[in-house]
Each structure stands twice: as structure tokens, then as C-alpha cells.
Description:
Blueprint: E1 10-14, H1 23-27, E2 31-35, H2 45-54, E3 56-59, E4 62-65, E5 71-78, H3 87-96, E6 100-104, E7 112-113, E8 129-133, E9 146-149, H4 153-163, E10 167-169, E11 174-175, H5 186-197, H6 199-217, E12 223-225, E13 232-233, E14 239-243, H7 251-260, E15 266-267, E16 282-284, H8 288-295, E17 296-299, H9 307-322
Parallel strand pairs: 1-2, 1-5, 2-16, 5-6, 6-8
Antiparallel strand pairs: 3-4, 4-5, 7-13, 8-9, 10-11, 12-14, 14-17, 15-17
Helix pairs in contact: 2-3, 6-9
Amino acid sequence: MVCGVSKEDEVIVPTLTFIAAVNPVKYIGAEPIFMDCDDSLCMDANKLLEFCLNECSFIDGKLINNHTKKHIKAIIVVHVFGNMANMEKIMKTAERFNLKVIEDATEALGTYYTDGQYKGKYAGTIGTVGIYSFNGNKIITTGGGGMIVSDNEELLNQAKHLTTQAKSDELYYTHDEIGYNYRMTNLQAALGLAQLEQLEDFIGIKEDNYNLYKEAINEIQGLSILDFEENIRSNYWFYALKCNDSFPLNRDEIIEYLSSKGIQSRPIWGLINEQKPYIVSQSYKIEKAKHYIERIVNIPCSSSLSDEEVRYVIECLKIINLE
Ligand SMILES: Cc1ncc(COP(=O)(O)O)c(C=O)c1O
């Protein structure tokens, strides 16, 4: 809403993400257009540009979807599993076509660029607005709730207004529009601040475990651990095990096998453009997202994992090839 999206508009969103990143488009009655991912698992910046050039018209500073004739106002970018989308290209496209960029940096809190135009910039601080969720499974948590960041003070004031019941007068309780109770409680915020102090320690543990997994698993025929982009310092939030077609078990069989050994693992989310509420929505050349969801298993990644536990997962995966 603070990016000026209203119910007549459209927003370009990723299909490979958790549904929470997309639902707000529908909450305000706007329509999503689903975009594919690239090998980073984040939105494919090349397909995004291709879509804007070939499927839309840029008229009087507005990007109009040729298919629906609606105004596309924004892009939601999700930085998946601690990786970072190609923000240089995405921001260029956004500037060219007057699109606001909403970065859902929930999964990449602490990830930053180490090279390029955005060197030193953290996930969530490049677009118009950045969003972080502090749900229970995130790298830091407050039990629930989240945070909005931006360098646009007016936008932040408007966000605060809307998330606290749009109260225009504190004393007399006057309200100038329909607001929401989306604020974080002060108890949660206190917990969040204490958690934030530990962020770098959590990232250190996750990085060590990632390297342990990666070195051993990349030696196993048919398996690999997906890399993070070269020009970033990732927060190593989630580890994506990729099973190639040469591996004796497929994705679901690996999950079942690990479960029989007492290890929880999981597939990536179901693609959002295939979920019931979105089946009729427009999507653009969804190819890589399909490839990856069929082949990726997320393996244990908690910052409380011990070395022995990581080694146990590795040993179980090694045995599959021998059995
Ligand atoms: C990309 C992404 N956005 C949002 C959320 C959650 O958002 P909320 O705090 O609104 O439940 C998650 C996961 O919980 C997520 O992975």
C-alpha cells in the first residue's frame, strides 16, 4: 500500500517463494504476475526485463500489461534461502519502467554484497522498501512479527500509520483511513534486539556447517549443495541439496530415507502460481522454478546443529550410493 499499489494494479512476484510474500498483493485486491527464478533461486532478472519489453507497453511513464491492460506498479523480490537476487539488473529494469521494488529480505537477513554497484549494501536496503519476518524458523526470531525498512521517511511514517490502526490523533482516537493491527509488540521487539546482537554468531555457525556439508556432499556422485552468489556474503540460512538425475533416489525418496534415519528434511515450497488461489493468475515462462522444486531437498540447517549431527546427515547420504 505504501508503494502506491491499489486494487486496479498489478505486481510482478516470484513463483518460487513462501506464499506470505505474495498474499499481500491480494489483500489489497491487486493482481500478481508470476515470474520464474534463475540459478540463484531468486527472481530471474533477465526474464523480468524480457517480460517488461515484450509483454507490456510503456505509456506516459506507466508500464501497462498488454494482456490485461492494467498498470504494473511494483515488483516483489524475495532473496531466497540467504541468497541475493540480481539487484543491479532488477533495479535498472525498475528505474526504466517506473516500478517500485519491495524486497522481502526475510530469508537473507545479514546477507550483503561484497562486490559491484551495491558493495556493502544489505539485502532489503536496495529497493524502495525492505521487509523482514521474524517468524520462528528465521535466522533470528521474535516468535512472530516483522520489520519494514526504507530510506524514505514519508513512506515509513505512512507504514507506521497503517500498521497501528491509522490513528491520526492519539488523544481523541480519530482515524483517517482503515488501518491494521500489524505492529510488533514491545516485548517482541526487546527479544528481537537481543537476537540481533547474536546475528553474526548465528551466521558464523551456519557458514561452518554449510562448508562442512558442501565439501563432503559435493564428493557424492549425483548430489551437490547449491552455491550462493559469488559477489555476496550470505547469511547461509538454508542449505539446498540438489539431487541430479544420476542419483539413485529422487527428491521424495531422499526425504523418506532421511526420515527413516531420524533426520527431518523437506522439499522447497509448492510453486505459488500452482496454488489454488493463484491458479488463474498470469505467469511468465515458469521453467527453472519447476526444475529446482523437483530436485531440491532442504537439509537440517539450524544454528543449534552440532558437528556430529551434520556428519551424521552426511554419512546417511553417503550410504545411499552404497546400498
Ligand atoms: C520470504 C518469506 N516472506 C515472509 C515469510 C513470513 O512472513 P510473516 O511473518 O508475515 O508470516 C516467510 C517465512 O515465514 C518467508 O520465507
